[in-house]
Amino acid sequence: MEKDALTDVAIEPLILPGSLEGPDAADFLDVVRIGNEAWRRASGTDLHDDDPAEMLVRWRETPYRVSHVVVARLDGRIVGAGRVEIDKTTRESAEIDVVLVEEHEEGPVAEALMAAVEALAHENGRTVLQAWTIHRPDPVERRLVPPTGAGWIPEDDPTTRLMRGAGFRLGQVERNSVFELNGSYEAVDRLLEQAVAAAGADYRPVWWAGPTPPEYADGYAAAIARMYTDVPVGDMVNEEASWDAGRVFERDERFAESGTLIGVTLVIHEPTGAVAAFNELTIGADRSRPTAQWGTLVMPEHRGHRLGAIVKCIGLKRWHERVPESPRVSTFNAEENRYMLDVNEAVGFVPASYAGAWEKKLA
After folding, report:
1. Torsion angle defined by CA atoms of residues 310, 316, 321 and 323, in that order, rounded to the nearest 10 degrees
2. pLDDT in tens, 314-362
3. Has the keyword Zinc been applied to this entry (predicted)?
């Protein structure tokens, strides 16, 4: 059947199952599988596979976040899914995600799913939609460059065409880099020694894996909140979200439920007790999978003391000791964030793929 003849697409809400083992879990598992397959096709790697147990917990509503998920059915079969994730402590923005089976990456099914996701965001009072696409690092002739001028993504990728056709604008390009946890740590050790010497006695590193120690919860929460305002976001809306110790502890509970482990490195500024820098590494219940690096930030008022190298190096070393089964770490950094890319390259991270950050403002 020709793509332009597909008009009987049904868009339906996804009902989250009570567990992964129940008879009502099939649709949810289909959606996770379709998403993983889509990102594998686009990136050429399995670095970004989602774990169903993690997604089930993440997509449940909490006091801080809510996800609305819809599926596209064709002849009774799920061929795509769309998600709108809303941080309840913000007012304008929503993160969206659309994934499809290969034969419907473009055409009426994709367009119907994008329209449904946009309508969902609008119904929930959101006027700024933000989304991320993943792309292989292979050289191409036709490139789409963001307003920052840093980096590019392929102009002819199906996901690029889908986003542009839906009225989204590329705002930034991020580099996805990988560090092999079972390789040499000579560069890590050398960089850490130099960074600790440069930072001096005013800065004290702290590391833990698992639940957040109560004595660090307030400072850690304040540092996470700074991720919304103090990292490069290119030509995109940067809306502040609220974090406090209660939100950190609620996230810890969800991690425990899904089997997710998080490792956190802080640098404490001793004269004030404030968190000056932090780094997060996470992995799902299958500890043999790649590790994902989440936030890494040095507070602007503490930059220039090589704290980024400290949290990065300590995090990698301690994580490998704690989770020796995980083969590698995957991280994303803005292409214009040359300081953090310099740290990554000095440590031994190498590019694996690139991500496009997209935005659409609704009327």
Report:
1. 140
2. 999 999 999 999 999 999 999 999 999 999 999 999 999 999 999 999 9
3. no
